[in-house]
Amino acid sequence: MLSELFFPEGLVGCAEWRHFALEQSPETAPLALLHSRDQPGLSLIVVDPRLVEPDYAPALEEADRAALGGGDGADLQWLSVLTVQNDPLVVTANLLGPLVVNRATGTARQVILSLSGYPAAYPVR
Question: How far from the centroid of its chain's Cα atoms is residue 40's Cα?
Answer without folding.
Answer: 19
